[in-house]
Amino acid sequence: MTVRPIVVYDDPLLREKSRRVQRVRPAVRRLIDDMVETMRAGNGIGLTAIQVGVPERVIVVEAPEENEKDAEESEGRESWQLYAVINPKLARKSREMEDGIEGCLSVPGLVGEVTRHYAITVEGLNGQGQDVRIRAKGLLARVFQHEIDHCDGVLFIDHIDDPEKIWPVAEGEEEAAEAAQEIPKNPS
Ligand code: ZN
Q1: What domains can be seen in the chain, in order of their start residue?
Q2: Which of 56, 62, 102, 147 is catalytic?
């Protein structure tokens, strides 16, 4: 597994709509392995292939089930479920919405408050090319929505109209900011 460089926000690649994966070939499985490695190296809770420069609809997610508080209080990554989904789509989404703080490995230094569906069902293929159906709520649902957005060239900042709801996280002050704002410990 290799940690790949992450594409950041001024790169037009991030605005591209990724293409569907037609066949789960070995290169896709290698891509997933590298994405997991890259996500963990960046202390992230989700990553999309476009963020490592590959415009194919592939996401990985590794996040606590419930909410931001759990991200701080949970035992950490070892207790979180790892998901890899190819051609992910939101099959169901709750009417109930929830506000939460998000960051992004491709938008370093910024966090913001985004309204997302509280609960969702994601459908797609796993790394073996089998159909998967994942039900998620809270933070986990948020991360899936954030990553599926990346497949369509959408960034979390696009969902924020009010400039007061987006703010910089100064380098080296992330710990303090987290405590103050209940930012998830691992921005996706
Ligand atoms: Zn992101």
Answers
A1: 12-180 (3.90.45.10)
A2: 147
